[in-house]
Amino acid sequence: MVDQSIASLAKKLRAKEISSVELTQDYLARIKQLDGQLNSFITVTDEVALAQAEAADKLIAAGSTSALAGIPIAHKDLFCTNGILTTCASKMLYNFVPPYESTVTGRMLASGAVTLGKTNMDEFAMGSSNENSHFGAVKNPWNLDKVPGGSSGGSAAAVAAGLCVAATGTDTGGSIRQPASFCGISGLKPTYGRVSRFGMIAYASSLDQAGPMARSAEDCAHILQSIAGFDANDSTCSDVATEDYTANLDSPLDGLTIGLPKEYFGDGLDNGVATVIQDAVKEFEKLGAKVKEISLPNLNLSIPSYYVIAPSEASSNLSRFDGVRYGYRCEEPKDLMDMYKRSRGEGFGKEVQKRIMVGTYALSEGYYDAYYLKAQRIRRLIKEDFVKAFEEVDVIMGPVAPTTAFGIGAKTDDPIAMYLEDIYTLSINLAGIPAMSIPAGFADGMPVGLQIMGNYFTEAKLLNVAHKFQQATDWHTKTPSLAEGA
Amino acid sequence: MNWEVVIGLEIHAQLSTKSKLFSGAATSFGAEPNTNTTLVDLGMPGALPVFNKEALRMAVMFGKAVNAEIGMTSVFARKNYFYPDLPKGYQTSQMDHPIVGKGHLDITLEDGTVKRVGITRAHLEEDAGKSLHEDFHGMTGIDLNRSSTPLLEIVSEPDMRSAKEAVAYVKMIHSIVTYLGICDGNMAEGSMRCDINISLRPKGQQEFGTRTEIKNVNSFRFIERAIYTEIERQADILEDGGKIVQETRLYDPDKDETRSMRSKEDANDYRYFPCPDLLPIELTQAYVDEIAANLPELPAQKAERFMTEYKLSEYDAGVISATRAMADYFEEVTKAAGNAKLAANWVMGELSKYLNTEGKEITESNVSAEQLGGLLVRIEDNTINGNTAKSVLQAMWEGQGSADEIIEAKGLKQVTDTGAIETMIQGVLEANAAQVEQFRASDEDKQKKMIGFFMGQVMKASQGKANPGVVTPILNKLLKG
Questions:
Q1: What is the three-state SS of chain A?
Q2: Are residues B113 and B231 in the same domain?
Q3: Which of A118, A143, B122, B167 could form a cystine bridge with B154, CB 3.0-4.6 A?
Q4: What ipTM was estimated for this complex?
Q5: Residues in A touching B51 (Cβ below 8 Å)
Q6: B339 and B241, same structural domain?
């Protein structure tokens, strides 16, 4: 039962082959049995899940047509969930129970989804390996010595290991796509503004975007259908009409023009990964697509631009964690300054402190023009690169990351190498376009994700392209084998 | 040395929107601590600001009222600093692209000269909460009711050269924002607060001296006194060959002195950058034009109209139009009484005396405009004379009823019957035969001086009810014999 799609489970739930309560019990048991090895959950909400499952069974009995009704899912632990601990994987919020629901989790609740719990992540979504968590690193279910990627590493590992049917993630610079690639699942970062950020604990507001992580593009489509669309609580949320994301999944790809940016296939790309991507592109050609080489000349500038803009916004966004109103407060503060310094010094992990300092520096008087403004100018150039490219091609394809999942601890002492991991994903966030990662094969026994990028608000097209590939291949059906009860 | 003072002002006017600048919480004053709050005002994780368009409309109204350029694209920026009553760790304000750009307004000084003061800019920003240091036994309480309340920060050019000019400017801003109905102008509740930038330079020198900023002064009187004391302090330092330190100071009204709050070196680097949670505000010309076309009458226009329509003197028109409440009150009295000059005199004179004595605003007057109008009608139709009217007003102020009720109850109706008045005057003259004798023996100048005595005696005899207009000719005739 655990490796089935949302669509097939929805059918079984309606055929009364299984109830949501039974399904939920199965998944909860599996989490109990296997998550000791993975550490993919921070909080498991047994009681809440079973109560929601019971309610979902009633909904289904009453004729609910929602594909998500009764489907057990998990949420990245930066979505505020009413009455449920929400930590952002930080000591700073070790005790934070929001009295409100994020738009994303609220909409999934309204669709009847069952919340199994909150998944582990890099603290405040800052990281590419899920090693920066107050609750410990997450392991890759394909190889427990490897990282699952980050920052949505818990969600990716949990979906890959069959601990939930699907999960939510957020993507600021690749945090859905890179862990999806490392763990062999499908993940979609929607267009900036497609999904509301209300109730999502902010890392970098102009880049953050929530999206689905699941076993297939089709499953991603079902979740996007639930969470996408205008929200008056988020001023940056778009009022562009949503589409029916499952309606055109099977549309043929004849005449589709795929752009291959030469910058995505240069130095630094692992040979094994390159081969998988080339094979995947050949598969698309078999499906009727044409391939065209393109150039995204400012790709290299995306790393410095991103690592100025994101920390700058973060330095301000994370100012509210001051020990005054909620979350961690140091013991026995001597005075106000001492409370600020120690609460933040003890509450935030190293990577978070590093980015706050980088951002604070970049925004400082005398440096602002040289860093923040210049980074914004680069951001416009990067966006123009994509706008130009999409005048010639329908989608752009390339690798998600230069390598497969690396070893735990391998890059923790080399922040530059870690930041270079994001070279193929950052520019998408800077431009605000949608992109997916779907499983396309293996290199050295580890999954490799293919990245598919689309023009603004073309999520339906991306899902269609990904789905056709998954109809023709079976990479997305591969599952890791975990020793039970270990 | 002959010093010239240079003053520039930053006025924070709280906009009278029903809800906050970035949330739906109420802005009402005096609610229980932390009850007028939402997730946004509390700075909860994941909470996002939603801009209140009513504040935008009010800011544009102000811009049009001071002949300013309107920022067709304005951008919210974050001003980052830590303070316990600043829940997000930043204040959402405007920096490079304010909603209101360069403008100006005219102030009238006491000697009647008109001076133009430049407005540098006005921008929208959210207020912080309040830290409460009393009642918490060595700890601090935080009340976030005021958090995210909309403010319009109005920045002037350093165009003022005296405390009097500064106060005239603040009064004009006060008058404009209350006329527009975009701020209640209640300075005691903090609806309008003022930061004063002040420096001295030798008269004739072009460049400015080093300035200090006096923060958060919240009454016209304190503004004037704070400036006087700061001028004196700076002049003393400069006279002794010292240097002014650029710093922020606080005015202590109890000691009538300013004190250093923090120096420039201690000042925060606010790390302004555009707020990524809010989109730039883009205005259309039609939106701005529509607001401009519907601006209410402003103080200067009203004063002008009062002079032409009601034939008030420039001084009277200026005083009465200073606040919208006073102007509205005056117009209502005039409507009821039918005599604008009389209405102006009573509003500015007798009524203002009562208001000042009790420290009340005209909106809190015990006597409504309609009631005062009713009193003036009785002067106009000679039912009572001016002196009697004063005592009737006192009774009205004390709540004894309308003018007519009081006149009736106290029997104050003026005597205009010439026969009755003549009889009464004869009685007075007989009782004062010696003075009559003296009057008749005097020259014209002396007589003029003496007539007041007889007038007083007549009024006394009539208990104030004799119509002076009727008394005067009869008295003159009888005195001359």
A1: CCCCCHHHHHHHHHCCCCCHHHHHHHHHHHHHHHHHHHCCEEEECHHHHHHHHHHHHHHHHCCCCCCCCCCEEEEECCECECCECCCCCCHHHCCCCCCCCCHHHHHHHHCCCEEEEEECCCHHHCCCCCCCCCCCCCCECCECCECCCCCCHHHHHHHHCCCCCEEEEECCCCCCHHHHHHHCCEEEECCCCCECCCCECCCCCCCCCEEEEECCHHHHHHHHHHHECCCCCCCCCCCCCCCCCCCCCCCCCCCCEEEEEHHHHCCCCCHHHHHHHHHHHHHHHHCCCEEEEECCCCHHHHHHHHHHHHHHHHHHHHHHCCCCCCCCCCCCCCCHHHHHHHHHHHHCCHHHHHHHHHHHHHCCCCCCHHHHHHHHHHHHHHHHHHHHHCCCCCEEEEECCCCCCCECCCCCCCHHHHHHCCCCCHHHHHHCCCEEEEEEEEECCEEEEEEEEECCCCHHHHHHHHHHHHHHCCHHHCCCCCCCCC
A2: yes
A3: B122
A4: 0.96
A5: 235
A6: no
